[in-house]
Every structure is written in C-alpha cells, then in structure tokens.
Amino acid sequence: MSEPVTIVIPHFKAEILVDCLQSLYDHTPSPIHVIIVDDGPDAPSISRAREQFPQVEILRNESNLGFSASCNRGLDQARTRYAVLLNDDTQVTHDWLRPLLEVAEGDPAVAACQPKLLSATNPGMFDYGGAAGGHIDRLGYTFCRGRILGHVEADEGQYDESVPLFWACGSALFLRLSAVREVGLLDLDFFMHFEEIDLCWRLRLAGHQILAVPQSVVIHHSGFSLPPQSYTKSYLNHRNNLVTLYKNLPASRLLWLLPLRFCLEILSSLLYFARGSWRLVPAPYAALLWMITHPFNLHRRRRASRALRHAEAARNDRLAIYRGSILVQYFLLRRRTTAAIMPESPTP
Predict the structure, then answer these.
(1) In what order do the strands lie in the sheet with 151-152?
(2) What is the pLDDT of residue 15?
C-alpha cells in the first residue's frame, strides 16, 4: 500500500536509536516520514542519526518534557492520515506496517492498532509492556494478551487473531490522526506511563475501536528508559493508573472503586516491603497523596474526558471491561495466562 505514514519517535539519550532507524528503513517498503523528538540534551545518538539518516526530521525540546509532550509535538507536525508512535528502543520486522494500514483502511471505525510486541532481551517471549494488546479488569488493573502482572508468556501463536482491545501499547501505537484530534492528544499531565491507555479509553468513549494486529511484529527492549525497579516508574504507574480511572469511569463506578483502590494501593506498599523492594515502598503512598492534593487538576481532566462520552459507546465500553479481577485469577486461582481467564472473539 502506498499511503504515507508519519513515524514519531520520542527520544531521550537511548544509544539504540540508530538500530531503530535502520530497522525502519530496512523493513518498511511503503512511504514514511520519520520525526524524532529529542527530549533534552543533544546526545551522541542524535548526531549519528543525523549522519546516517539525513532524511529524518529532528525536533529538539529545550528540556526534558516527558514522553507525552514529545509524542504530541511529533503528532502536531504530522500531515498524513496515519501516524505511529514508536519507541526508540524498538526494532520493526519485515513489512510490519502493511497489516496495520490494511486494517485501518478497511474499517474507518478503527482509531488505533497495536502490533504484536515481542521481547528483545528474551527471544520467543512477549514484551512485558504491551505483549499482544491490552485489557483492563473491573478494579482498574491493566493486563495484556501474553502478560498478567509479572508473568510473561512465550509466544506460541496463541494470540495471533486480530481481536478488539481495550488499549494499545504506546511503544508501537498506530493511530488514525483524525480520531486522535477529535478526542485530543496525549494528556501532558501524565508525563509518561498510562498516557496511551487514557488516549485509547477516550477514543473508545467517542465511539472508536482499538484492534490487535498480530500480523505486524515489533521487537521491544522493555524498560530501557526506566528500569522496572525504578521509584519514578513505580510512582508514575500507581498515580497514573488512578488518574486514568478517575478521568474515564462513570461516577457510579468511582463511588465504590476509588475507596477500594486506595486500600489496595496501601496493600501494594506492604507487598513491596515484604519482598524487600525498599525503594518502591513509598511509591503507592506518594500516588495517593498526589490524588488527594490535586482535586482541581483531576476535576479539569475528568470534565474534558467525560465530555467525549457517547451513550452507546459508553455502554460498549463497560461491556469491554473484563468483569472479573486479575488479582483473584492470579493469586487465588493461580491462572497465569490471558487465554485461561478471558475468551476471545476474533473480528470477522
């Protein structure tokens, strides 16, 4: 297919950037316009990218604005119908873009797609961050086709059907720009983590669809920017998960869910303590403190999100949430795979 696509790569010092660009130009026969948004100092990786790939467009932030702001700056520059948010620590595989384009061109209701994400450090395993596409349970905990909590599955073709998703991972996120501009770009207040889940939720509330497209495969170095045991990563995940729920759930759900989640956040801190993850112990408390001390920020963001709500889309949104609890499935019933807890309905 000849439809041009903008590839937006937020970048912060990662030396693997050149490998990402090389894979893009080696494995993308269709026309692409690559925009790198350099989030901070002009690192040596940027100099090498300019030298080896002079056709790329490079935008520089004067300071570290975070993933959301860098992505938004690149999306603002896009003049194509479609764009892909692509992490600088990814490598695409042969003809990866064609299946995503075909799905989007075949159904105008599709606003976002995710390729199958595999791990660069554990060959044959799914990527921790996105795996084969994302879902969410009734308590607001996210999980993936191929990863529940800390358990990551091997890719054995079990998620090779294209199915509806609740959210698609921002590491390699294909977007229909008209839909994104309708609901608004990434929420800058997230800084990083959960921004793509919030965007997909808003797209769903506005009546759009999110799909897995496992015929497209991208390799990802998960946790390259922030290590899994980073306090900052843990804090942002706890805080932004709660913010996402507050922004997008109906009030009737929040009345019982938020008090329960506050209790579960405290339990998370106790579990970090029991496991000896000392640096992570304060993260849930810091997230709760932020929620309590920023009511006006939360109200503003919730009002903007709920204004997108279409009645029928909101009903379908509720039906798409997994009605069980992955905590119960994982810890009590010992079920470790998404296929074991959530039957799938392939798209026609």
Answers:
(1) 134-136, 142-144, 147-148, 151-152
(2) 81
Whether the predicted model's global pTM rises above the 0.85 cut: yes
Which residues contact residue 328 at a Cβ distance below 8 angstroms, ignoring those fewer than 6 apart? none
CA distances from residue 293 to 244, 286, 290 in whole angstroms, order as listed = 16, 11, 5
In this structure, the number of other CB atoms found within 10 A of the CB of residue 52 comes to: 12
The reported pLDDT for the residue numbered 81 is 98
Whether residue 136 contacts residue 257, with contact meaning beta carbons closer than 8 Å, is answered with no
**For 170-233, where are the E strands, in sequence order?**
172-176, 209-220
Rounded Cα distance between 163 and 348, Å, is: 9
What would the mean pLDDT of 27-40 be, rounded to a whole number?
A: 93
| Sign of the CA dihedral running 170, 104, 132, 93 | negative
Q: What whole-number distance in Å separates Cα of residue 120 and Cα of residue 103?
A: 26
pLDDT digits (tens, 9 = 90+) for 203-243: 999 999 999 999 999 999 876 566 667 899 999 999 999 99
Asked: is 5-220 a CATH 2.40.50.150 domain? The reply is no
- Residue 324, amino acid: G
> Where in the chain are the domains?
5-220, 231-309
What percentage of the chain has pLDDT greater than the value 70?
93
Integer Cα distance of 22 and 345 in angstroms: 36
Q: Percentages helix, strand, coil for the chain, rounded to the nearest 5?
A: 45, 20, 35
Residue 320 is predicted with a pLDDT of 85
Task: Flag whether pLDDT at 2 surpasses 80.
Answer: no
Strands 110-119 and 172-176: antiparallel
Find the Cα–Cα–Cα–Cα dihedral 72, 179, 241, 217, rounded to 10°: -80
Entry field: residues in the chain = 348
Distances in Å between the Cα of 258 and the Cα atoms of 1, 132, 191, 264, 265 are 46, 28, 22, 10, 10
335: number of Cβ within 10 Å: 18
Q: How far apart are CA 50 and CA 342, in angstroms?
A: 46
Closest C-alpha among 256, 247, 253 to residue 299: 247
Distance, CA of 292 to CA of 298 (rounded, Å): 10
